[in-house]
Write a structure and sequence with these properties.
The protein is mainly alpha-helical and 423 residues long. The chain contains 20 helices and four strands. A two-stranded antiparallel ribbon has the order 1-2. A two-stranded antiparallel ribbon has the order 3-4. The longest helix is centred in the middle third of the chain and has 34 residues. It is globular, with a radius of gyration of 22 Å. The termini are far apart.
């Protein structure tokens, strides 16, 4: 019993050190990019701002499909943060993340007016967020314009998907390759490269999954699951705008279940521990921003942040009271079309046929664990009902975790004497 308690204490010490390291590194990285010259960033944004305005707030990449909608409004906020010339010292500007605002409804137009040095703009900011994406976005805007960054974004995303597929192939998870492709299809991937806002969770979730596939044996040997998921949660909090953060938890968690292939008792404990570690990293990193920001800016960020958190978790939308179930159903609504029917049809037929053909060798306990992870996005929607109801047109992407977890049931078969399982 003492040895178990000692292990827990040592684990907590490691997480405390990791947390402090994340806070220091995150603050220094943001401060560093706020030391970069703003003029070339402004010139590169200027090149694309007219085309950006022509697109509108939420154009569809795939006409008629809400899931392919872009979020140019939030991208304008991100660009506005990147190009704003703050009069504060770099360490305070990094915590404030200020930008010029015309009003709440015309963020793209505010970009153009700020670049043209028009009057009538006010300073605004989202101090409750880290805005860690600026660590990458600001340096990129020194070299590329917004349109070129979109192209680069698509190339990098495609490379990451191919690397994941390669590692799944090398680990003999051939059905896992199709499972992953189906989960990517569930993201409406044609929209991801065009909205920086939709890229952050994808990069964290896919990056952590790739790391896990490359170094699984080392991670298992050194029992570094907890640290890995804590870091994944912290990194998601650092760069994301509350888009589809469960992707960064669920995809690597599914891979852990399939790769570990342990008894249900041990694996359930590991799943709960990893999920709690991710949640701790996510929430503590957010709280760390409020603490550091309040100290450096000499103002209380906590009040606004906590009010926003309570609002996002409520069941109220404006003056209307909505049920949390409605928030869940609204996210599924994105797939109520031909695209969704085809995706669901392939998924259900494939998994159903595989389960029927392999019912004698299928590992029921492992399949149940995967279904538990598949329920994760639904739990997220129930907790964040306000946000999930209003922003369903991008929060639906959390459901790609459910797709992946359900499809990976096809990797739960026990091997026969030849080491093979029916496909």
């Amino acid at each position: 019993m003492e040895s178990e308690e000692w292990k827990v204490i040592q684990q907590l010490k490691k997480l405390a050190v990791l947390y402090l390291a994340c806070l220091v590194a995150s603050t220094l990285a943001l401060t560093a990019v706020y030391c970069l010259p703003v003029r070339p960033i402004q010139e590169h944004v200027r090149v694309s701002v007219d085309a950006f305005l022509e697109e509108g707030d939420n154009p569809f990449v795939l006409p008629g499909y809400k899931g392919s909608s872009l979020d140019n409004t939030t991208d304008a906020i991100m660009l506005g943060n990147a190009l704003y010339q703050s009069e504060l010292p770099a360490y305070q500007a990094a915590m404030e993340a200020g930008r010029a605002e015309l009003d709440n409804e015309h963020t793209q137009l505010a970009l153009k007016k700020y670049l043209d040095q028009d009057q009538g703009l006010t300073l605004t900011s989202y101090e409750r967020y880290w805005h860690g994406y600026l660590v990458v976005l600001k340096p990129l805007l020194l070299v590329f314009n917004y349109g070129q960054i979109r192209i680069l974004n698509g190339i990098v995303m495609a490379i990451l998907v191919l690397l994941i597929l390669r590692q799944l192939w090398k680990r003999d998870l051939r059905r896992g390759m199709l499972a992953f492709l189906l989960s990517v299809a569930g993201l409406f991937p044609m929209a991801l490269p065009y909205s920086l806002q939709f890229s952050t969770s994808f990069y964290v979730g896919t990056g952590i999954s790739l790391f896990l596939l490359y170094r699984y044996e080392k991670i298992k040997e050194k029992e570094q699951y907890i640290e890995m998921f804590f870091l994944a949660g912290a990194l998601t909090s650092y760069v994301d705008f509350l888009t589809y953060p469960i992707y960064a938890l669920g995809i690597p968690l599914v891979l852990c279940i399939v790769l570990d292939n342990e008894n249900i008792g041990n694996e359930l404990k590991r799943i709960v521990a990893c999920a709690c570690s991710w949640g701790s990293g996510y929430l503590l990193m957010w709280a760390g921003k409020w603490l550091i920001g309040s100290a450096l800016l000499k103002e209380n960020i906590f009040a606004d942040a906590l009010q926003t958190v309570m609002g996002r978790a409520s069941g109220e939308v404006g003056a209307e009271q909505i049920s949390r179930i409605m928030a869940v159903l609204r996210n599924f609504y994105i797939y109520f079309n031909l695209y969704g029917v085809l995706l669901a049809g392939i998924l259900i037929l494939w998994v159903g046929i595989w389960c029927i053909r392999n019912r004698a060798v299928m590992k029921i306990d492992q399949a149940l664990l995967l279904l538990l992870v598949a329920a994760g996005p639904i739990c997220w929607y129930l907790v964040t009902a306000n946000h999930a109801y209003i922003h369903y047109w991008f929060t639906f992407r959390n459901l790609s975790v459910s797709i992946f977890a359900f499809a990976m049931i096809t990797e739960t078969g026990k091997t026969n004497k030849k080491g093979e399982v029916d496909s």
